[in-house]
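User
Class, as today's exercise, I want you to study this protein, comparing sequence with structure tokens, and judge whether sequence predicts the tokens.
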Amino acid sequence: MNKEFVDALNMLAAERNLDKDQLLASLEEALEQAFERNVMPGKQIEVELDPDSGEMDIMVIRRVVEAVEDPDKEISLAEALELDDEVEVGMEMEFPVDPEKFTRIAVQTTKQVITQKIREAERAYVFEEYKDRAGDIMTGVVSRTDNKRNVFVDLGRGEAIMPSKEQIHGERYMVGMRLKVYVQKVELSPRGPSIHVSRAAPELLEYLMRQEIPEVADGTVELKAIAREAGLRSKVAVASNNPNVDPIGACIGHRGSRIQAVTAELQRERVDIIQWDPNPREFIRNALSPAKVGNIELDTEEKSARVTVGSDQLSLAIGKSGQNVRLAHKLTGYKIDLQPSESVSDFDAAMQAAASRLEGAAQTERSHAAFDALFRTPEPEPEEAEPSEAAEDADEAVADTTDSPAEAVEGDQAS
């Protein structure tokens, strides 16, 4: 060893952001293993490196005993007293070794062990850097994929793995693609730190909503619960801490601008914003929207709900492949049993039906009135008064006195 080697070691530690003392300790351990395996098998070796000069001291360690059983690691008390008259049983003695015995095979072994120690030190550093990042949102770059559909994301210092179940449905991951991921957990395994990330976690949706919606960021609108099927559909229950702020409108934004900014990061995933309610019955009713449901019977001990749904709303309540009711279950925590029914006993639905009936009756009455007006028989006009009998006699008398001239002449001749 020399000063140049120590300088190179210091430079390596600075480039890899490694602890210098730890690297020197790893080098000493590597040299000890190389000696024990290749130069002096069976002996206990101790190596000391001077961090300034680079000088190396190699020593064989032997324990002082009364009766020697392993001459490679033990020395008798009598022999030890010849070398040092102050030694006692149980003490260890050091015997220097000529570094020239350090063969090429030992050097190669040392190189391998140093490489392994550097790799382990880097892994330990990565683990220390990311162990407290679990639960955070980070931006990474897709570095590679494998035949198991796992996606590996470069986070800077470390590489994270995103299993297929934690990916967004339908999203394609290309090498070099930048994306936001949620750090689920960080573990230290024999192969090094293992960082698991997700794009399907509800926490990613919550983070994006906090970034895009000021009312959510400052706490005016609170995200009470999130249920998500990544890439397909999500439901978010919101509540307002300010009576003057509409939580649903605040999350949607003008013409849906805010929620569209969120879904743009999630492959246009559909996000339903619903009103949270402290009453579990009303919360379940809201969670099943856009379907209109009827009576809800709760079993708080079993965390189950029996929901009556009109036959025309049943398919809407279930959703495509059961998606709507499944998300409602995740959101509320209640197992939901939908019961189809022709009649509706829910008060709101009954009022709506009553209003529909009243409107229908009014429409029917208006239709009947129009029909009657169209076919009603017109009233007869007033008839002229019939002439009296006296008037008729007078008319006859006038007629008699006005006989023709011929009849009058005939009468005179006859006389």
About this structure: Confidence is low (pLDDT under 50) at residues 388-415.
